[in-house]
Amino acid sequence: MTLQVVPMQAVTPISVLGTTLVFAAFLSITAHLAARNVLGDVDPRRALYIGPLPAVIGVVGGAFAVTEALLVPLALLVDGVMFAWSYDQPRRAVAVMTAIHAVITTLLGIIVLGIVVLVASMPG
Questions:
Q1: Membrane-spanning regions, if any (predicted)?
Q2: pLDDT tens, residue by residue, 101-112
């Protein structure tokens, strides 16, 4: 598999906004799964507050080529702050939800990327 470079003409404000919104939705879904894992039955609307800020950090950090050594801890910190604000839980529960959120997001991201690569490489 070869890596394809996207020409700069393909990057528009609409494409950046769309990428950020899809990433925020994905992070919100995985945040809800993490919260359900720790807290049980929770309101799914609370997870909608969690996804957007880490998504913006990822997209803006990627656009400005900020190193992952800075982006990942920053995104995890913001993720934890948003879990604490949204679910109003003790620090231990917030730390567990944040860790589970990172694991779920990583695993589902790998699975989705694998499916996209498989579909993109289909003959015909």
A1: 12-35, 99-122
A2: 999 999 999 999
Rounded to 10 deg, the angle between the 52-63 and 13-39 helix axes is 140
Count of other CB atoms within 10 angstroms of residue 50: 29
pLDDT tens digit sequence for 41-92: 999 999 999 999 999 999 999 888 889 899 999 999 999 999 999 999 999 9
Asked whether 104 and 35 are in contact (CB, 8 A), the reply is no
Query: What's this model's pTM, rounded to 2 decimal places?
Result: 0.85
Residue with tokens 């807290």: 39
Three-class HEC string of the chain: CCCCCCCHHHCCHHHHHHHHHHHHHHHHHHHHHHHHHHHCCCCHHHHHHCCHHHHHHHHHHHHCCCCHHHHHHHHHHHHHHHHHHHHCCCHHHHHHHHHHHHHHHHHHHHHHHHHHHHHHCCCC
Contact 83, 31 (CB under 8 A): yes
Q: What is the CA radius of gyration of the chain?
A: 16
